[in-house]
User: Fold these one by one.
Assistant:
Number 1:
Amino acid sequence: MDEQFVEWISPMPLVAILRGLTPDKASETGAVLIDAGFRVLEVPLNSPNPIETISILAAEFGQRALIGAGTVMTTDQVIQIADAGGKLIVSPHSDQNLITAAKARGLFSMPGVATPSEGFAALNAGADGLKLFPAESLSPPVVKAWRAVMDRRVGLFPVGGITPDTMDAYWEAGATGFGLGSALFKADYALSEIGAKADRFITKMRTLI
C-alpha cells in the first residue's frame, strides 16, 4: 500500500460508506463519525448530489479524514471527484482505466475484486488496496487463502454485510480493515443512532488492532 494511504488507514482501518448522504447533512454526519474515531469517509456516487457532499466533507474535514467516493464507474467521475477535493476512488469492480485515472490525479484507488486474478491485476495496475466485494460471498476461509498468496502489505478490505460480530473471523484470516455500509449508516438514521453504531464499530476495531 502507498505510504500515505497507510498513514490514513492504519490508525483506524474502517471505511464509513455513506450511501444516501445528502449535502445538507454532510457536516453533521461527518462530525459524528470523525469524532467517534473514523478516518475514512466514502460517499457513493449513487447518493443524491454526491459531488457536492464530497466537496463539503473535503473542505471541512479533509485535514482530519480521507474523503472519497464509492460506486465510481467512469474516468469522468474520477476527475469530478478530484476537483471536489476527494482523494479516494472506490468501485464495486476492477477497471484498469479507473485505477490509472485515479493515480494520474494523485488519488488513492481501492477497486472491488472477487477473485485473486482480479486482485493481482488491480495491484499491477496501481491499486492501493483491494475492496473484497461482496464479502458475503468471500468468507473468512477465502480471505485466509488470499492472504496466503498475497504480501502482508497488500490491503484487503471486506465490504458487504460486515458487523461488529463478524469482524473477528475476517481479521484473524488476514483482513486489513473493513468497509461499513448499512450496519453503520442509512440516510434515515438519526445522528444519535449513527453515533452509537460508530462507537460500537470503533470499540470493536480497537480490540483487534
Number 2:
Amino acid sequence: MTKLLGPWAPQALSVLRIVAGLMIIQHGMGKIIGFPVVPAYAKVQAFSLIGAAGFIELIGGALLILGLLTRPVAFILAGEMAFAYFIGHAPKDFFPLINNGTLAIMYCFTCLYLATAGAGPWSVDATMKRT
C-alpha cells in the first residue's frame, strides 16, 4: 500500500489543505455575509467575539484554499478553533460528542498539522518558492 499511495502524499497534503479551507470559509461566510443562511448566525455582530471569529475564518479559509501564507494562517486558525472549543463547547460537557465540539477539535488539529507540514505542491506558497 505504501508503494502505491506513498508517492501521492504531497498532493494529498494539498487536497487536505484545500478541503479544510473550504470547510472553514463556509463558517466565516455564514457569519459575515449571511451565506449560506444559518439561523444561529442571523444576528452576528461584526465587532463581537463570534464576528471576529467569522473574519478569521473568512480570510483564513480563503488563504488556506489558495495555499498562501499557509503555516502562519493555519497556526492562527488552530488557535481560533482551540479557543472556540474551550469557550463555546467544553463548558457544556466534558465529552465532545455531547458538547458538539468534535468539529472544532478536528479543525484545530488539522490546522495544527498544516502549520507544521506546510501547503503542499498545489499552492501559491510552493509556486513562490520555485521562483
